[in-house]
């Protein structure tokens, strides 16, 4: 009998195949006290486990084909870097020595401390980096527990046309399985912002995550359909359903071939309105993808990776090197660098540690943190200004909520320019500075912000969360996350209108920008710049090239004036189907 399971679709496309069930659960960890005489032996056993984990990842990386994109290999590099970090390698050694506990328990205690720091972060992208901590820790634990086969059993497994079902997958697992022919995967845990989900999108692997208890309902070798767009897993499909999805696969393959032809085509509507399509990146290596899809430049360069997995602060030269790397790849294309957006998790002395706050989402984060802890902020300002001498750099300030914050930033920028002049270092004296609109109060006051900045960028991920008071990665309330809520649409429209009146560019860089379901609505609202994950850009471009702006604007106006959910859905359907 056919039945369906539901989760979060993180990578579009559909797959049909037999199940490869991966029964690999969290290792059981117990604590025991060691005799003093063998404490140093236990320390060495732990260090040997870390070395073996490093060797496993290096072996996987060495097997990657030379043609694989740089950003794919970077996911393994991140885990390798974590194995060099004292948080995971030296801190457990101290615990073994001071508590005389076994290596597995020491690593578990340290993992729990580190995860607390990540869970205190408000930025959803940063918060789910705890998954990377878990992946690395789990690899070491399995080695320590003499369960190394669980880390390496995939090497010998053949997965041609198989759909893997597991509790969770690491980026290394995903790359290895894809090389062995895996057609899709389903996991019981994980979310759309995990590195494994991002990697699935990059590799074009259909995937559904967060399917609770999937392994209880599915048997090995059972036929399965995975719909990565709808987030649906069909178990035991009948002949009619198989025929439909085989037809759907053919349609998708044809669409992908057509999308590839759009790379060199301009992003023009049918009535000849030019639209700017930019890409978001999280690591310097991602800049290669920007070139591959023909984006007009980078609309959002996240810089938080520079602060991750370390107890000290990155210095000016580290910042500058990462920016110059991207400039070298993109040459003269514009690059918008977002100043660091961290939560209330960094002490003044640069040592990371969880700060107990009632609600970190409303606490000291992003520009608030930077203005309070300027030794964190000033090196980045200097590096951004210095980088502007070598490329078309713009600087974007996240989570502004008051004009006073903006004026403080602008004063710091001027102070930094004078400092660099005194040093004799070059920079663009007219470096464009923009405001991210992601707090409802900032959206309402967008006309005032627009008078003092060079551009505005709407961060819909946070704007929606703050407007509707929900956390989109919290399973208990994420059903309330609604980009089409009338309040959200009005705030977006107010911001677009403010930019137009001030004659400055307005872009939209949240996930909404990369979802073709909303492309025509945003066009009709007057948006002319989109910034998104590179993998979504060509699909959005196709929608733009098949749109007539003059027909979209009246429907968008009507949609903005309705609060009825049924009418809203009807108008969205009308605007989406309008060609």
Question: How would you characterize the overall build of this protein?
Answer:
48% of the residues lie in helices and 12% in strands. It is an alpha/beta fold. The chain folds into two domains: 3-239, Enzyme I, Chain A, domain 2; 270-577, Alpha-Beta Barrel (TIM Barrel), CATH 3.20.20.60. The chain is globular and about 75 Å long. The model is unreliable at 149-156 and 344-356 (pLDDT under 50).
What's the structural domain tally?
Answer: 2
Mean pLDDT level:
87
Order the strands across the largest sheet as they lie in space: 1-8-7-3-4-5-6-2
What's the CATH topology label of the largest domain?
TIM Barrel
- Evaluate the radius of gyration: 25 Å
User: In angstroms, what separates the terminal alpha carbons?
Assistant: 40 Å
How many individual helices? 25
Morphology = globular
CATH class of the largest domain: Alpha Beta
What assembly state would you assign to the polypeptide chains in this entry? Answer: single chain
Helix/strand/pairing category: alpha/beta
Sheet-strand content, in percent, reads 5-15%
Can you tag this structure with a few keywords?
579 residues, alpha/beta, Enzyme I, Chain A, domain 2, TIM Barrel, 2 domains, eight-stranded mixed sheet, eight-stranded parallel barrel, 25 helices, 16 strands, globular
């Amino acid at each position: 009998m056919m039945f369906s399971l539901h989760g979060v679709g993180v990578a579009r496309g559909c797959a049909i195949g037999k199940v490869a069930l991966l029964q690999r659960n969290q290792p059981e960890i117990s604590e025991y006290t060691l005799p003093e005489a063998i404490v140093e032996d236990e320390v060495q056993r732990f260090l040997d486990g870390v070395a073996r984990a490093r060797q496993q990842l290096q072996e996987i990386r060495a097997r990657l084909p030379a043609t694989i994109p740089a950003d794919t290999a970077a996911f393994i590099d991140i885990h390798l870097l974590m194995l060099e970090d004292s948080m995971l390698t030296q801190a457990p050694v101290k615990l073994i020595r001071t508590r005389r506990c076994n290596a597995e328990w020491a690593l578990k205690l340290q993992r729990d401390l580190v995860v607390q720091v990540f869970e205190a972060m408000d930025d959803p992208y940063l918060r789910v980096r705890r998954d990377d901590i878990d992946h690395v820790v789990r690899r070491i634990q399995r080695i320590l527990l003499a369960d190394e086969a669980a880390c390496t059993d995939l090497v010998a497994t053949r997965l041609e046309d198989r759909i893997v079902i597991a509790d969770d997958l690491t980026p290394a697992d995903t790359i290895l399985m894809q090389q062995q022919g895996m057609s899709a995967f389903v996991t019981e845990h994980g979310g759309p912002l995990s590195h494994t989900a991002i990697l699935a999108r990059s590799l074009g692997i259909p995937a559904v995550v967060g399917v609770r208890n999937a392994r209880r309902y599915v048997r090995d070798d059972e036929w399965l359909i995975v719909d990565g767009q709808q987030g649906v897993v069909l178990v035991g499909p009948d002949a009619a359903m198989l025929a439909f999805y085989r037809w759907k696969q053919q349609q998708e393959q044809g669409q992908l071939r057509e999308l590839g032809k759009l790379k060199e085509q301009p992003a023009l509507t049918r009535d000849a309105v030019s639209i700017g399509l930019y890409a978001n990146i999280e690591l310097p290596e991602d800049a290669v993808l920007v070139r591959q899809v023909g984006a007009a430049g980078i609309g959002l360069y996240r810089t938080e990776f520079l602060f991750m997995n370390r107890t000290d602060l990155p210095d000016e030269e580290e910042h500058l090197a990462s920016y110059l790397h991207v400039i070298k790849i993109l040459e003269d294309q514009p690059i918008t660098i977002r100043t660091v957006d961290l939560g209330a998790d960094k002490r003044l002395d640069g040592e990371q540690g969880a700060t107990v706050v009632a609600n970190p989402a409303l606490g000291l984060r992003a520009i608030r943190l930077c203005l309070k802890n300027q030794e964190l902020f000033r090196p980045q300002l200097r590096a951004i200004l210095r980088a502007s001498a070598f490329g078309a750099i713009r600087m974007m300030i996240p989570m502004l909520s008051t004009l006073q914050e903006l004026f403080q930033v602008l004063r710091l920028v001027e102070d930094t320019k004078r400092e660099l002049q005194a040093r004799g270092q070059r920079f663009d004296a007219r470096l464009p500075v923009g405001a991210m609109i992601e707090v409802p109060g900032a959206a309402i006051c967008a006309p005032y912000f627009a008078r003092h900045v060079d551009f505005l960028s709407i961060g819909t991920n946070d704007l929606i969360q703050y407007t509707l008071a929900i956390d989109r990665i919290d399973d208990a309330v994420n059903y309330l996350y609604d980009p089409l809520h009338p309040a959200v649409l009005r705030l977006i429209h107010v911001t677009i209108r403010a930019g137009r009146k001030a004659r400055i560019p307005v872009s939209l860089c949240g996930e909404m920008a990369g979802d073709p379901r909303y492309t025509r609505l945003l066009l009709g609202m007057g948006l002319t710049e989109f910034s998104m994950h590179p993998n979504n850009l060509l699909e959005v471009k196709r929608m733009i090239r098949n749109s007539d702006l003059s027909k979209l604007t009246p429907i968008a106006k009507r949609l903005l004036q309705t609060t009825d959910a049924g009418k809203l859905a009807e108008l969205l359907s009308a605007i989406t189907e309008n060609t």
